[in-house]
Amino acid sequence: MSEPLQKLLSAHGRGIERNGESTPATSIIEPVGRWVPTAIEAKSMDGTPYAGNLLADILAYRELRGRALCLEPLSEQEKDAFTVLERKLRQPPETDAGSVARLRFYYRYQCGFSAELRTEGPDQPGIAAMVEDVSAGGVKLQSQCTSDPGDQVWLVLDNVEPATTRKIVLPSRVAWRSARGAGLMFAGAPICLDTLRPPDRLRPPGK
Protein backbone atom coordinates (compact mmCIF):
# COMPACT_ATOMS: atom_id res chain seq x y z
CA MET A 1 0.00 0.00 0.00
CA SER A 2 1.32 3.44 -0.90
CA GLU A 3 2.32 5.99 1.73
CA PRO A 4 -0.44 8.48 0.73
CA LEU A 5 -3.03 5.73 1.05
CA GLN A 6 -1.68 4.56 4.40
CA LYS A 7 -1.93 8.12 5.71
CA LEU A 8 -5.48 8.44 4.41
CA LEU A 9 -6.68 5.21 6.01
CA SER A 10 -5.04 5.97 9.35
CA ALA A 11 -6.25 9.56 9.52
CA HIS A 12 -9.36 10.61 11.40
CA GLY A 13 -11.69 11.51 8.56
CA ARG A 14 -14.98 13.38 8.53
CA GLY A 15 -18.28 11.60 8.86
CA ILE A 16 -19.89 10.18 5.76
CA GLU A 17 -23.30 11.65 6.49
CA ARG A 18 -23.12 15.38 5.75
CA ASN A 19 -26.76 16.31 5.22
CA GLY A 20 -27.48 16.96 8.89
CA GLU A 21 -29.96 14.09 9.27
CA SER A 22 -30.06 12.39 12.64
CA THR A 23 -29.12 8.73 12.98
CA PRO A 24 -30.87 6.05 15.06
CA ALA A 25 -29.49 5.33 18.52
CA THR A 26 -28.53 1.80 17.44
CA SER A 27 -26.80 2.89 14.24
CA ILE A 28 -24.12 5.56 14.57
CA ILE A 29 -22.45 6.65 11.35
CA GLU A 30 -18.74 7.41 11.62
CA PRO A 31 -15.80 8.02 9.27
CA VAL A 32 -14.79 4.98 7.24
CA GLY A 33 -11.11 5.91 7.41
CA ARG A 34 -10.96 5.10 11.14
CA TRP A 35 -11.98 1.48 10.67
CA VAL A 36 -10.00 -0.88 8.46
CA PRO A 37 -11.40 -4.24 7.32
CA THR A 38 -9.21 -7.25 7.91
CA ALA A 39 -7.31 -8.33 4.82
CA ILE A 40 -8.84 -11.07 2.68
CA GLU A 41 -7.20 -13.42 0.21
CA ALA A 42 -8.09 -12.07 -3.22
CA LYS A 43 -6.84 -13.03 -6.67
CA SER A 44 -7.43 -11.54 -10.09
CA MET A 45 -9.17 -13.67 -12.70
CA ASP A 46 -5.77 -14.87 -13.95
CA GLY A 47 -4.78 -16.02 -10.45
CA THR A 48 -2.50 -13.11 -9.50
CA PRO A 49 -2.81 -12.20 -5.78
CA TYR A 50 -3.90 -8.65 -5.02
CA ALA A 51 -1.07 -6.55 -3.58
CA GLY A 52 -2.42 -4.94 -0.42
CA ASN A 53 -5.70 -4.89 1.50
CA LEU A 54 -8.31 -5.04 -1.26
CA LEU A 55 -11.34 -4.18 0.88
CA ALA A 56 -9.57 -1.23 2.49
CA ASP A 57 -8.55 0.07 -0.93
CA ILE A 58 -12.08 -0.28 -2.31
CA LEU A 59 -13.61 1.52 0.66
CA ALA A 60 -11.13 4.39 0.47
CA TYR A 61 -11.62 4.65 -3.30
CA ARG A 62 -15.40 4.75 -3.07
CA GLU A 63 -15.39 7.38 -0.35
CA LEU A 64 -12.98 9.61 -2.31
CA ARG A 65 -14.85 9.04 -5.56
CA GLY A 66 -18.16 9.93 -3.93
CA ARG A 67 -16.75 13.16 -2.57
CA ALA A 68 -15.23 14.05 -5.94
CA LEU A 69 -18.54 13.43 -7.71
CA CYS A 70 -20.22 15.75 -5.19
CA LEU A 71 -17.59 18.39 -6.10
CA GLU A 72 -16.14 18.37 -2.59
CA PRO A 73 -12.53 19.59 -2.47
CA LEU A 74 -9.89 16.93 -1.85
CA SER A 75 -6.57 17.64 -0.18
CA GLU A 76 -3.36 17.00 -2.10
CA GLN A 77 -2.83 13.88 0.00
CA GLU A 78 -6.31 12.63 -0.88
CA LYS A 79 -5.79 13.41 -4.56
CA ASP A 80 -2.58 11.38 -4.53
CA ALA A 81 -4.33 8.47 -2.82
CA PHE A 82 -7.21 8.61 -5.30
CA THR A 83 -4.76 8.49 -8.24
CA VAL A 84 -3.01 5.46 -6.75
CA LEU A 85 -6.32 3.66 -6.24
CA GLU A 86 -7.55 4.46 -9.75
CA ARG A 87 -4.45 2.80 -11.19
CA LYS A 88 -4.86 -0.27 -8.99
CA LEU A 89 -8.60 -0.82 -9.30
CA ARG A 90 -9.82 0.64 -12.58
CA GLN A 91 -9.62 -1.52 -15.68
CA PRO A 92 -8.19 0.23 -18.77
CA PRO A 93 -10.57 0.27 -21.75
CA GLU A 94 -7.98 -1.38 -24.02
CA THR A 95 -7.86 -4.55 -21.91
CA ASP A 96 -7.38 -7.84 -23.77
CA ALA A 97 -9.98 -9.61 -21.63
CA GLY A 98 -13.10 -11.15 -23.08
CA SER A 99 -15.96 -9.12 -24.49
CA VAL A 100 -17.96 -9.16 -21.24
CA ALA A 101 -14.95 -8.15 -19.13
CA ARG A 102 -14.25 -5.21 -21.43
CA LEU A 103 -17.63 -3.75 -20.45
CA ARG A 104 -16.59 -3.52 -16.80
CA PHE A 105 -14.93 -0.44 -15.37
CA TYR A 106 -13.02 -2.24 -12.62
CA TYR A 107 -10.88 -5.34 -12.19
CA ARG A 108 -12.66 -8.25 -10.52
CA TYR A 109 -11.01 -10.32 -7.81
CA GLN A 110 -11.96 -13.82 -6.74
CA CYS A 111 -12.39 -14.20 -3.01
CA GLY A 112 -14.54 -15.89 -0.42
CA PHE A 113 -15.75 -14.15 2.72
CA SER A 114 -19.00 -13.91 4.61
CA ALA A 115 -21.15 -10.79 4.66
CA GLU A 116 -24.73 -9.77 5.33
CA LEU A 117 -27.29 -8.55 2.83
CA ARG A 118 -29.87 -6.11 4.15
CA THR A 119 -32.96 -5.19 2.16
CA GLU A 120 -35.03 -3.11 4.60
CA GLY A 121 -32.41 -0.54 5.58
CA PRO A 122 -28.72 -0.22 6.53
CA ASP A 123 -29.42 -0.81 10.23
CA GLN A 124 -32.09 -3.50 9.85
CA PRO A 125 -31.56 -7.27 10.15
CA GLY A 126 -30.44 -9.02 6.97
CA ILE A 127 -29.60 -12.43 5.56
CA ALA A 128 -26.31 -14.29 5.29
CA ALA A 129 -24.27 -13.97 2.11
CA MET A 130 -20.96 -15.26 0.76
CA VAL A 131 -19.01 -12.91 -1.49
CA GLU A 132 -17.46 -14.80 -4.42
CA ASP A 133 -15.82 -11.94 -6.26
CA VAL A 134 -15.48 -8.22 -5.66
CA SER A 135 -14.41 -5.10 -7.52
CA ALA A 136 -14.54 -1.38 -6.83
CA GLY A 137 -17.89 -1.37 -8.60
CA GLY A 138 -19.72 -4.24 -6.96
CA VAL A 139 -19.82 -7.88 -5.89
CA LYS A 140 -21.09 -11.29 -6.90
CA LEU A 141 -22.46 -13.24 -3.96
CA GLN A 142 -24.22 -16.41 -2.92
CA SER A 143 -27.41 -15.52 -1.07
CA GLN A 144 -31.12 -16.22 -0.83
CA CYS A 145 -31.73 -12.76 -2.22
CA THR A 146 -35.36 -12.00 -3.05
CA SER A 147 -34.89 -8.38 -4.16
CA ASP A 148 -35.46 -7.55 -7.82
CA PRO A 149 -32.93 -5.97 -10.18
CA GLY A 150 -32.85 -2.23 -9.51
CA ASP A 151 -33.85 -2.55 -5.85
CA GLN A 152 -31.69 -0.83 -3.25
CA VAL A 153 -29.91 -3.08 -0.77
CA TRP A 154 -27.03 -2.77 1.69
CA LEU A 155 -24.00 -5.06 1.86
CA VAL A 156 -22.64 -5.28 5.41
CA LEU A 157 -19.02 -6.17 6.20
CA ASP A 158 -18.38 -7.16 9.80
CA ASN A 159 -14.72 -8.19 9.49
CA VAL A 160 -13.71 -4.77 10.75
CA GLU A 161 -10.99 -3.80 13.23
CA PRO A 162 -10.68 -2.80 16.01
CA ALA A 163 -14.07 -3.90 17.39
CA THR A 164 -16.52 -6.57 16.22
CA THR A 165 -19.50 -4.33 17.06
CA ARG A 166 -18.51 -2.08 14.16
CA LYS A 167 -19.71 -2.74 10.65
CA ILE A 168 -19.04 -1.15 7.27
CA VAL A 169 -22.04 -0.83 4.98
CA LEU A 170 -21.91 -0.47 1.20
CA PRO A 171 -25.14 0.96 -0.29
CA SER A 172 -25.87 -1.06 -3.44
CA ARG A 173 -28.41 -1.91 -6.11
CA VAL A 174 -29.27 -5.37 -7.39
CA ALA A 175 -27.89 -5.82 -10.92
CA TRP A 176 -29.14 -9.36 -11.43
CA ARG A 177 -30.56 -12.25 -9.42
CA SER A 178 -30.59 -16.01 -9.82
CA ALA A 179 -31.61 -19.01 -7.73
CA ARG A 180 -28.02 -19.22 -6.48
CA GLY A 181 -27.26 -15.61 -5.67
CA ALA A 182 -27.08 -12.08 -7.01
CA GLY A 183 -24.85 -9.40 -8.43
CA LEU A 184 -24.73 -6.01 -6.73
CA MET A 185 -23.57 -2.64 -8.01
CA PHE A 186 -22.25 -0.30 -5.34
CA ALA A 187 -24.28 2.91 -5.22
CA GLY A 188 -22.65 5.61 -3.16
CA ALA A 189 -19.99 6.07 -0.53
CA PRO A 190 -19.58 3.50 2.29
CA ILE A 191 -20.88 4.21 5.77
CA CYS A 192 -19.89 2.86 9.18
CA LEU A 193 -22.30 1.64 11.80
CA ASP A 194 -21.64 1.15 15.49
CA THR A 195 -24.33 -1.20 16.74
CA LEU A 196 -23.85 -0.59 20.47
CA ARG A 197 -23.04 3.00 21.36
CA PRO A 198 -25.89 5.50 21.90
CA PRO A 199 -25.47 9.02 20.43
CA ASP A 200 -24.59 10.68 23.76
CA ARG A 201 -21.47 8.52 24.06
CA LEU A 202 -19.99 9.65 20.77
CA ARG A 203 -16.67 11.42 21.01
CA PRO A 204 -15.00 13.56 18.36
CA PRO A 205 -12.05 11.88 16.62
CA GLY A 206 -8.93 12.02 18.76
CA LYS A 207 -10.80 12.71 21.99
Write a structural description.
- Strand 4 and strand 5 (127-134) form a beta hairpin.
- Helix 1 (3-10) packs across helix 3.
- The protein contains four helices and eleven strands; from the N terminus they run H-E-E-E-H-H-H-E-E-E-E-E-E-E-E.
- It has one domain (3-17, 26-92, 106-194): Beta Barrel (Thrombin, subunit H).
- The protein has a six-stranded antiparallel β-barrel. A two-stranded antiparallel sheet has the order 2-8.
- Helices cover 20% and strands 29% of the residues.
- The chain is of the alpha+beta class and 207 residues long.
- The protein is globular and about 45 Å long.
For the largest sheet, list the strands in their spatial order.
4-5-6-10-9-7
How does the overall form come out from the CA principal axes? globular
Unreliable spans: 1-5, 7-31, 196-207
Counted by DSSP, the helix tally is: 4
Please name the CATH topology: Thrombin, subunit H
Please state roughly what percent of the residues sit in beta strands, choosing from under 5%, 5-15%, 15-25%, 25-35%, 35-45% or over 45%.
Answer: 25-35%
Integer average pLDDT: 76
* Computed Rg: 17 Å
Please identify the top-level CATH class: Mainly Beta
Major β-sheet annotation: 6 strands, antiparallel, barrel
Number of beta strands: 11
By helix and strand content, what is the structural category? alpha+beta
The CATH architecture would be Beta Barrel
- Indicate the percent of residues in helices: 10-25%
Gap between N and C termini: 28 Å
CATH superfamily: predicted glycosyltransferase like domains
- Number of separate structural domains: 1
